[in-house]
Specification:
This is Linalool dehydratase/isomerase domain-containing protein. InterPro entries: Ldi. With 144 residues, the chain is mainly alpha-helical. 50% of the residues lie in helices and 9% in strands. The chain has 5 helices and 5 strands, in the order αβααββααββ. The chain has a 3-stranded antiparallel sheet. A hairpin with a 4-residue loop joins β2 and β3. α4 packs antiparallel against α5. It starts with a helix and ends in an 8-residue tail after the last strand.
Length: 144
């Protein structure tokens, strides 16, 4: 099959619909919250070009789908993945800055208020103060 903007848009959209707008399993059985963000941005571009409303529909579906799991864990960090077959949520256990930064930077393009509300607490959990006013973010521990 030859892919173009329209056919790729349709294909991803229907995968989202079939998954109840949780996202598309980009790895076997793994629906990462991060991975729906580029789709939302792509739908926004497609809507600008075509005059459609797919991004609006997708955002509403995404927010409903993740409401039961929570976009953030109890510590205010982005939940990572839902196992598609069992609907088990895997949170940001080790508080990985990568998860919050990647998801937040993409989500910021369509949901600034949410990101700006939670970012200060997220970054505060990661920053390590060093000598002479330096700051660092340590790498996350490897996950099991």
């Amino acid at each position: 099959m030859l892919w173009d903007r329209d056919s790729l848009n349709e294909h991803i959209y229907w995968q989202l619909v079939q998954n109840g707008y949780l996202g598309v399993a980009c790895e076997p059985n793994c629906v990462f919250q991060i991975c729906i963000q580029p789709a939302i941005l792509g739908f926004r571009l497609h809507d600008l070009i075509t005059g459609g409303k797919r991004a609006e529909e997708t955002v509403a579906g995404y927010e409903r789908a993740w409401a039961g799991f929570g976009r953030l864990d109890e510590n205010g960090h982005c939940n990572v993945v839902i196992l598609k077959d069992s609907k088990i949520l895997i949170g940001n256990e080790g508080a990985s800055a990568q998860t919050d930064a990647w998801c937040g930077s993409l989500m910021n393009m369509w949901n600034r208020e949410f990101v700006h509300e939670h970012y200060p607490g997220q970054i505060a959990d990661y920053l390590v103060h060093g000598p002479d006013g330096t700051l660092s973010v340590p790498p996350a521990s490897p996950a099991d």
